[in-house]
Design a protein that fits this description.
The protein has 2 domains: about 70 residues, Arc Repressor Mutant, subunit A (Orthogonal Bundle); about 140 residues, Muramoyl-pentapeptide Carboxypeptidase, domain 2. The protein has 10 helices and 6 strands. The protein is globular.
Length: about 230
């Protein structure tokens, strides 16, 4: 499935909505694009047939209860993401295999760390340019500028040490990271360093999830929880 520059068909709008907002129900897509649910479902059926989209059961939300079966959510497949000009190819995989064979794990880790150096380089500049942004929002802007289509979502207050969740709807190197998880590990470590706190990677596109998600706990709530445990 290809998405040519300048082509703004409704089906491509549906696919792009899934790229930027992650797995969604047909109703949620319809609301975002101001379309009827029936129209969205027709396009989703074609995207499913093309192999660009897959239907999934929604992830359960802690503490959430409701009647009836929850609606399916739809997410882009690897084939669907390829239509958005992902910046990887077989040459990159072959190059990293060669690097791992000749330089071993230390060389591979150093490459991964250099690749994500933009996080620590750009974070202070973006933060200084817009002090109103939270640290997670600064990260989202940094990642978006690098092609990750990142956003921030608040974690439910019922979650211990609730804070924010960094969501990356697009990963320019997801196919490469599938074979070389060192890329994801270096990225997570860089996020921890710029925020000066422990963060947890909950899901990654490289391992089949619809979106890369990183849990960023609120430092004050984390401190309060630790005090409760000690007392």
């Amino acid at each position: 499935m290809e998405f040519e520059a300048g082509d703004r068909t409704t089906r491509q709008r549906v696919a792009r909505c899934l790229l930027h907002d992650g797995p969604l129900t047909a109703a949620a897509i319809a609301e975002r694009l101001d379309l009827t649910a029936a129209a969205v479902r027709r396009h989703l059926d074609q995207l499913l047939e093309d192999g660009a989209v897959e239907a999934r059961d929604p992830r359960p939300i802690a503490g959430a209860r409701g009647r009836g079966r929850p609606a399916k959510v739809f997410a882009l497949t690897d084939a669907g993401r390829e239509g958005f000009d992902q910046q990887y190819d077989d040459l990159a995989v072959q190059a990293l295999r060669f690097l791992a064979e000749t330089g071993g794990q230390p060389a591979l880790r150093e490459f991964a760390e250099r690749r994500v150096a933009f996080i620590e380089e750009r974070f202070p500049h973006v933060q200084a340019s817009d002090p109103s942004l939270s640290p997670a929002q600064v990260l989202a802007r940094v990642f978006t500028d690098e092609g990750y289509a990142a956003s921030v979502r608040a974690l439910p207050v019922s979650v211990a040490a609730a804070g924010e969740q960094l969501c990356q709807q697009h990963c320019p190197v997801s196919h490469v990271a599938h074979e070389f998880p060192e890329l994801c590990e270096a990225e997570t470590a860089a996020i921890s360093r710029v925020l000066d706190r422990h963060v947890q990677r909950l899901a990654t596109i490289a391992h089949g999830d619809g979106v890369c998600t990183t849990c960023i706990p609120d430092p004050q709530r984390t401190t309060d929880e630790r005090k409760k445990v000690v007392s």
